[in-house]
Design goal:
The complex is a heterodimer of chains A (477) and B (395).
Chain A lengths: L7 H13 L4 E2 L2 H6 L13 E4 L3 H14 L2 E5 L16 E5 L6 E5 L4 E4 L5 H8 L4 E2 L12 H7 L6 H4 L6 E7 L5 E5 L11 H5 L8 E8 L1 E2 L3 E9 L2 H13 L6 E6 H11 L9 E9 L1 H17 L4 E5 L2 H12 L1 H6 L4 E4 L9 H15 L2 E7 L4 E8 L4 H20 L18 H4 L2 H14 L20 H4 L1
Helix pairs in contact in A: 1-3, 8-13, 13-14
Chain B lengths: L5 E2 L3 E2 L10 H9 L11 H6 L6 H12 L7 H8 L6 H5 L6 H14 L5 H13 L7 H13 L8 E4 L2 H6 L1 H13 L15 H5 L3 H17 L4 E4 L2 H14 L5 E4 H10 L11 E5 L13 H9 L3 E3 L21 H18 L3 E4 L2 H11 L5 E4 H8 L8
Parallel strand pairs in B: 3-4, 4-5, 6-7, 6-8, 8-9
Antiparallel strand pairs in B: 1-2
Helix pairs in contact in B: 1-6, 10-18, 14-15, 16-17
Classes of the chains: A alpha+beta (477), B alpha/beta (395).
Bound molecules: flavin-adenine dinucleotide (FAD) and iron/sulfur cluster (2 copies).
Chain lengths: 477, 395
């Protein structure tokens, strides 16, 4: 990336400070570096970082961007894994919305809550719990992910199988558009088909169409119980087949997770206390609802596990055992990070029928490139998280790891799937857009972007590349 | 710096002298996945809301310094020295990054290469020259506080009551209450003629060779007096003896925090708590008793034994307890105040009259702020001594 071209020190920074406050604009090289990265492996230097507290400040900064010609990248907690908050060109401002984190309105009669975008998912659920409610989208990053980030990445989690991803829970938005105008879209009414569904368009738009400053969310009563069953299989292939059968037979699980052999071994080492049977993979199934119904389904599930050739199965019928089972799932990524210095979480998603084949493809590309991969994921919706493990300080291994990524992405598309189920494109996976989409579709996407942001002020080079942008990750290696 | 400065994808172009730290610590900085889960934990991030002051930011900076991407300027020093080493991030980090081990190694590099703050050098000088962090005439203070009672203790014992300099100087009544309790309960223990600081601060600030020198001197002294066990009212001292002294010499005595001993004595009926403390109280887990030593139950058992007390937990408690900010009070007093203010705010919401703790540094930091909410901070030894009728007042 070339050096910044605009007059930041003399003009833009003083004006930003006037809007956001003297202490709320940073441009020390160290701050810029810290805000040049997220949880992806990409990096891009911004020209400044600004923290905002109100919709008006956001709108004023967007207007200033229009006048001065700089670009804006909205940022929540920066926990995305797709380079979603990484500048792809010089003269970008990182606009941090994390401090706008208040509950604006709690309309409990309508099961609705309106929040600012910086509220952290777990904090929102802590707020809702005493009222007997929760916000169902449950990314593993709920301790840090902000609602603004979740909306823009359309985040999902373990329970997406039953409750869907973030999209299904957004009823309305306040958005600062790329020209600085503020709009309110959506409706409190559950049924609402009054013209194009703009709310859905903003969900998953990765900050490229507008800046969300408020969100009206649907909430759900907490279930009476959530119990878990685990089935151990000889191979991930067999485990994948069982998951499909669980769904087909109407068990209505709230989540079905798969952990492969390597992940289980890593979890055993990490925990020091957990011990799993020798197997190729485990399927964890969560059932929720009232206790009698859930217990009945659990009994039947044990029978099904046997029928599908499970080596062993277990059910957890009390909170403590359930928590232990989920602790193993939650430890999956951490445990793997201990194995090598660099761990990269991938996000391929394929139709259920092709899930077993995806596992075989993961083994193939791992072997081909000599890069260790361990896999777990939300098997019930076909979304897998292969974890690539290497040492980025070794240039040869780094190159092979990037090649492995590209091979994985191609394999997912070959299997009628996608390169990303829930993490997004950002700048990390741009090179796969023309592989996954027809040229006409890309053209349409570009037109949508142009309609909302003709000057390309918001997240330029994200989702849609800008001229001259290096998008081939293998080129850099 | 521009992106041209980034080589091989993610590494920085070396432009400045590369920071060299222990291999294991260096690998930890690369293992950080930048997930930001530590945003949920780090009290300094909570106070500043700037990622550079978060654990993630610190690890990123450390990595950048290893790669030689930045000079070590005043701002870098501030980021690296505002970490309180509270370990709260380690409770939440999914990758189990040993954040405080990395920080220790980084600070050793900084101090070895003369990147030090003048305020920190003063503390170091105080410890090395005067045997206490505050720069006071410690033997005199020590004797004023303990002279009388020391005369009544056995000259020799394998168990030592080690008062610690911060407690002795700032809260002598509390330190003395600890001695009185052990004596009343009939414990066999002695005290030194004069104490030297445990020197933990030297270690935390990166002055490793000085720390080792001071630690060896203390270890030798303990050994020459036949000390096998230490009881102290300062959880920082206890942690320094058990972790850092032990790393230097197997001869270092095993240390117990006084709360562990008091629980036993209460259980054995050797201390009987009869006088009530009327009011609602909460307890602030000191980082060095909690996350460092994993002693969560002992202080709670003591509190439950005090008649009249209505005990409520803070919203963030035990492994999740907030840090008071004490370790960075010099020179970052305002930031320390911000951290303590959050604890006071939580306590005020609970409607308590007292915040109990059992660490002189917590006592000092929170006490300086709690009065504004009409909340008092009390340390357990003195309160226990009051309830047992050994001292007349707990405040
Ligand atoms: C260990 C780990 C586990 C994870 N687990 C999951 C998981 O289970 N499921 C899942 O879906 N994701 C997961 N993620 C990815 C990530 O945490 C989510 O995408 C999360 O929702 C991002 O939230 P954030 O606040 O960090 O957003 P950021 O990373 O700050 O931003 C994400 C995107 O949203 C945009 N944005 C943020 N706020 C706004 C706003 N107010 N207006 C407009 N645009 C905005 C940004 O420009 C960017 O494009 C995981 C990540 C990690 C590191
Ligand atoms: S929680 Fe751990 S891995 Fe995540 S950013 Fe913080 S230090 Fe790094
Ligand atoms: S040890 Fe405490 S202050 Fe230091 S980074 Fe971790 S949480 Fe923050």
């Amino acid at each position: 990336m070339e050096k910044h071209l605009l007059n930041w020190d003399g003009v833009i920074i003083p004006k930003l400070k006037k809007i956001a406050g003297e202490d709320n604009v940073l441009n020390h090289a160290i701050d810029l570096y810290i805000y040049s990265r997220d949880a992806s492996i990409d990096v891009g230097m911004p020209a400044a970082v600004a923290f905002v507290n109100t919709t008006e400040e956001v709108a004023d900064i967007v207007k200033l961007a229009n006048e001065e010609g700089f670009s804006i990248i909205p940022r929540g907690a920066g926990s995305n894994v797709s380079g979603g908050v990484i500048p792809a060109k010089p003269d970008c401002l990182i606009l941090v919305l994390a401090r706008m984190n208040k509950v604006v309105d709690f309309d409990v009669e309508n099961f609705l809550i309106t929040v600012e975008p910086g509220i952290v998912c777990l904090d929102l659920n802590t707020y809702l719990e005493p009222y007997g409610f929760y916000f169902p989208p449950d990314p593993a990053s709920d301790k840090t992910a902000t609602i603004g980030g979740m909306i823009n990445n359309n985040s999902g989690g373990i329970r997406a199988l039953k409750y869907g991803v973030t999209e299904e829970w957004i009823m309305g938005l306040e958005v600062v558009l790329a020209d600085g105008n503020v709009i309110n879209i959506g409706n409190k009414a559950i049924k609402f088909v009054c013209g194009y569904d703009l709310v859905s368009l903003f969900v998953g738009s990765e900050g490229t169409l507008g800046i969300i400053t408020k969100a009206m969310l649907k909430i759900q009563p907490l279930p009476a119980v959530r119990l878990v069953a685990s089935g151990y299989f000889n191979s991930a292939f067999e485990a994948g087949k069982c998951v499909r059968e669980i769904i087909k037979r109407g068990f209505d699980p709230s989540g079905t997770e798969i952990l492969d052999y390597k992940t289980l071994k890593a979890v055993e080492e990490y925990s020091g206390t957990l011990k799993f049977p020798e197997c190729g993979a485990v399927v964890l199934v969560e059932l929720d609802g009232n206790r009698d119904d859930v217990e009945m389904r659990l009994d039947k599930l044990e029978v099904l596990f046997k029928e599908m050739g499970a080596i062993k199965s277990e059910t957890a019928r009390d909170l403590e055992t359930c928590t232990q089972v989920w602790a193993a799932r939650k430890a999956a990524f951490p445990a793997l990070t201990l194995r090598r210095p660099t761990a990269r979480m991938e996000d391929v998603s394929v139709p259920l029928k092709n899930l077993p084949a995806m596992f075989q493809e993961i083994d193939r590309v791992s072997e081909k490139n000599g890069i260790e991969i361990a896999t777990f994921g939300h098997a019930g919706d076909g979304n897998l998280h292969p974890i690539l493990l290497w040492d980025e300080r070794d240039p040869d291994e780094h190159r092979r790891a990037l090649q492995t990524l590209v091979d994985l992405w191609h394999a997912a598309i070959e299997l009628e799937g996608t390169v990303t189920g829930e993490h997004g494109i950002g700048v990390s996976k741009l090179m796969m857009m023309p592989v996954e989409h027809q040229p006409k579709v890309l053209e349409l996407k570009k037109k949508i972007k142009d309609a909302f942001d003709p000057k390309n002020i918001l997240c330029p080079g994200h989702i849609i590349p800008i001229p001259g942008q290096r998008i081939n990750i293998l080129e850099d290696a | 710096m521009t992106q041209e400065d980034v080589v091989s994808g993610t590494m920085l172009e070396p432009k400045y002298k590369k920071m060299v730290i222990e291999d294991d610590a260096e690998t930890e900085t690369y293992r950080c996945v930048r997930c930001g889960f530590c945003r949920f934990a780090c009290p300094i991030f909570d106070a500043t809301q700037v990622d550079s002051y978060n654990c993630r930011g610190r690890i990123m900076l450390e990595r950048a310094l290893i790669e030689g991407g930045f000079p070590i300027d005043d701002y870098a020093m501030e980021i690296l020295y505002t970490c309180t080493l509270c370990k709260k991030c380690e409770e939440h980090c999914p990758a189990k990054i040993k954040v405080t081990d990395v920080m220790d190694s980084v600070r050793v590099y900084l101090a070895d290469n003369d990147y030090t703050l003048s305020e920190h050098r003063s503390i170091a000088d105080n410890i090395l020259e005067k045997g206490n962090t505050h720069g006071q005439d410690y033997p005199v203070v020590f004797n004023e506080v303990f002279g009388e009672i020391k005369a009544t203790l056995p000259k020799e014992s394998s168990t030592l009551y080690y008062a610690g300099c911060v407690g002795t100087i700032d809260y002598p009544d509390n330190s003395l209450a600890g001695v009185k309790l052990l004596k009343e309960a009939g414990e066999d223990f002695t005290m030194l003629d004069a104490e030297d600081c445990c020197a933990g601060f030297l270690n935390w600030l990166g002055f490793k060779p000085y720390f080792e020198k001071a630690a060896k001197k203390n270890i030798e002294l303990f050994k020459s007096q036949g000390i096998e066990t230490i009881i102290t009212a300062c959880p920082m001292c206890a942690s320094v003896f058990n972790e850092d002294y032990k790393a230097i010499s197997e001869d270092a005595p095993k240390a117990y925090h006084i709360s562990e001993v008091l629980t036993r004595l209460i259980d054995e009926g050797k201390i009987k708590l009869t006088k009530p403390l009327e009011g609602k109280v909460t307890f602030k887990d000191p980082c060095h008793l909690g996350r460092y030593a994993l002693k969560y139950d002992a202080p709670r058992k003591i509190i439950e034994s005090i008649p009249g007390v209505e005990f409520v937990e803070l919203p963030e408690t035990k492994g999740d307890a907030r840090c008071c900010g004490g370790p960075i009070r010099v020179p970052y007093t305002e930031l320390r105040n911000d951290l303590s203010d959050e604890i006071v705010k939580d306590a005020a919401k609970l409607g308590v009259q007292y915040i109990l703790t059992t660490c002189p540094t917590c006592h000092h930091s929170i006490g300086m702020r709690a009065y504004r909410e009409r909340i008092r901070v009390l340390e357990l030894p003195r309160l226990v001594a009051y309830s047992a009728g050994i001292v007349d007042s707990y405040r």
